[in-house]
Amino acid sequence: MTAMVHGSVHVERGEPVLPRWWQSIDKLTLSCVFILFALGLFLGLAASPPLASRNGFSEFHYVERQAVFGGLALTAMVLTSMMPPKLVRRLGVLGFAIAFIALALLPVLGTDFGKGATRWYSLGFASVQPSEFLKPGFVIVAAWLMAASQEINGPPGKTMSFVLVLMIVGFLALQPDFGQASLVLFGWGVMYFVAGAPFILLIGMALLVVFAGTVAYNNSEHFARRIDGFLSSDVDPTTQLGYAADAIREGRIFGVGLGEGQVKWWLPDGHTDFIIAVAAEEYGLVLVLIIIAIFAVITFGSLARLMKERDPFIRLAGTGLACMFGIQAFINMGVAVRLLPAKGMTLPFVSYGGSSLIAGGIAIGMLLAFTRTRPQGEIADHFGRRGH
User: Fold this and answer.
1) Which phi and psi (to 5°) does residue 261 adopt?
2) Which ranges in 61-129 belong to alpha helices (H)?
3) β-strands 127-128, 121-122: how paired?
4) pLDDT for the residue 221
5) In whole angstroms, what is the distance from residue 388 CA to residue 383 CA?
6) In the predicted model, what is the mean pLDDT of residues 151-175?
7) CA 16: distance to chain centroid?
């Protein structure tokens, strides 16, 4: 695939890799990711010690593990961002194949860790969640298929990607993991829209999602329990949603102060799915708005750069990665304030988690690789050449 055009930065081919990478990388997005990770460690210092104490670990056990996983994630991000788009595509396809096989084998070899959903492989010293690694790989494969379908005599890539997303959603629903299933379906829908899907088809997809949700509600106790809890006018104060609501309410504008929050003592997932509740209680609305602004800068800044892209594959893949990143953050924070049903989804680079951190680093590394500035002429010149 051809590279991107976002400006007129001139880079000589013989220039060393690091200077060339630094001149062409989206420094704003790169900086925002490092800030998010730093905030995650900072919030982990407040949120994780109570849980570590209850589980018999040292006080900063989870913070230390997050630092290790985060270091691996940031290293993977930087290394991936240095790759040319063609190499990113090849590795993305390979990674997708491995993650898809791992996802399919979860019912046989996976474990639920007592949470009622078989989503992980236990390695003893750590666990791996295949769906986290599947997401960036699926975006690459779907974008490749859709881009190929736009070529003369190309394969029916859009139809193939549709069949593929239905298979993935089916496997995720069996776990059950409706949060990741909805995220994958959303990413595919955005890419399909950018690829030129007719509006009536998107409406049909929305109706299909509603139908699937109705079936899941009637046949899955796990799914029905979460929907009923979301729709109930009364929130049980002893549930995670109840604790999170109290924490956000107590935090107000500037928070109760460093180390003064109480929700971390009661929230089992205070260091993961509900980390934003800890931030809201101790540091108030101010920090929450800062976090929201950082996610918005990464998502919309990347989309703005991709709007100038002339290569269909890079444009589609980059759009899918950016939108899935942004919507995952929206879902996580939306659950904490009861805008959405509970999903069991982490806040990228802020929540604790090995699989989510490392897979997120790979995904953002791919996005950074697609949004690098490379000299390749103007878009109009490209179309002019194709006309000859």
Assistant:
1) -70, 150
2) 61-81, 85-104, 106-109
3) antiparallel
4) 72
5) 9
6) 90
7) 32
C-alpha closest to that of 369 among 3, 1, 95: 3
Burial of 253 (0-12, 13-18, 19+ CB in 10 A): exposed
Single-letter residue type at 209: V
Among 101-110, 139-148, 157-166, 249-258, the least confident range: 249-258
- What does each C-alpha distance from 327 to 135, 282, 350 come to in angstroms? 13, 25, 15
| H/E segment holding residue 289 | helix 275-306
**DSSP 8-state symbol, 307:** T
Q: Do 320 and 190 touch, CB atoms closer than 8 A?
A: yes
Angle at 323 between CA 322 and CA 324, to 5 degrees: 95
Cis ω for the linkage preceding 348 (within 30 of 0) = no
Under 8 Å between Cβ of 22 and 78: no
Average pLDDT for 57-78: 93
CB 147 within 8 A of CB 313: yes
Close Cβ partners of 309 (under 8 Å, ≥ 6 residues apart): 4, 5, 6, 315, 318, 370
Q: pTM, whole model, 2 decimals?
A: 0.87
Structure tokens that stand for 226 in this block? 């979460």
Asked whether the CA dihedral 147, 151, 156, 158 is positive or negative, the reply is positive
**Residue range 230-245: mean pLDDT, rounded:** 70
Q: What element of type H or E holds 325?
A: helix 312-336
Q: Is residue 383 predicted with pLDDT exceeding 50?
A: no
Q: Rounded to whole angstroms, how far apart are CA atoms 317 and 4?
A: 12
Q: Which of 46-50, 189-193, 284-288 has the lowest mean pLDDT?
A: 46-50
Q: How far is CA 377 from CA 11, 177, 348, 384, in A?
A: 13, 45, 35, 11
Determine if residue 154 is left, alpha or beta; phi over 0 gives left, psi from -120 to 50 gives alpha, anything else beta: beta
For CA atoms 325, 169, 72, 305, the dihedral sign is: negative
In order of 31, 44, 324, the CA distances from 104 in angstroms are: 36, 33, 22
Under 8 Å between Cβ of 51 and 273: no
Reduced to 3 states, what is the DSSP secondary structure of residue 237?
coil
